[in-house]
């Protein structure tokens, strides 16, 4: 689902938990971002390949499907090194070398927004 905010940075949210995805999506939209949301890494890769306007990817580590969020971050950095990646998790304590930022869960949406503003600029 896409939440448009024309002329604002486009954030791709990758989260398989619907309520968590909705919460961060609404916070980003309220802060003025355009948001497209998906539930797995495969959908994220498809969107990244077809939409060249994505300014930031925000992904959970644990995702449904064949690829987790750390693998997604690696693929993004291989194919689109200019796109910043924020990784979040409640079980992993670091995001590895492919993430630009790690935010542990539970996170404060104000932290997500402030970091998104810096990274998507």
UniProtKB/TrEMBL annotation:
Record key words, sorted: Phosphoprotein, Transcription, Transcription regulation
Organism annotation: Pelagibacterium lacus
UniProt GO BP: phosphorelay signal transduction system
Annotated SUPFAM superfamilies: CheY-like
InterPro entries in the cross-refs: Bact_response_regulator (IPR050595), CheY-like_superfamily (IPR011006), Sig_transdc_resp-reg_receiver (IPR001789)
Residues that bear 4-aspartylphosphate: 60
Boundaries of every Response regulatory domain copy: 10-120
Name the UniProt record assigns to this protein: Response regulator
């Amino acid at each position: 689902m896409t939440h448009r905010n024309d002329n604002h940075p486009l954030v791709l949210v990758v989260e398989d938990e619907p309520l968590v995805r909705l919460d961060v999506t609404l916070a980003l939209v309220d802060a003025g971002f355009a948001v497209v949301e998906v539930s797995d890494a495969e959908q994220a890769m498809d969107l990244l390949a077809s939409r060249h306007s994505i300014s930031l990817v925000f992904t959970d580590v644990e995702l449904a499907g064949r690829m987790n969020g750390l693998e997604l971050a690696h693929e993004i950095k291989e194919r689109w090194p200019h796109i910043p990646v924020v990784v979040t998790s409640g079980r992993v304590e670091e995001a590895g070398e492919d993430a630009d930022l790690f935010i542990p869960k539970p996170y404060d949406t104000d932290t997500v927004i402030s970091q998104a503003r810096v990274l998507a600029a």
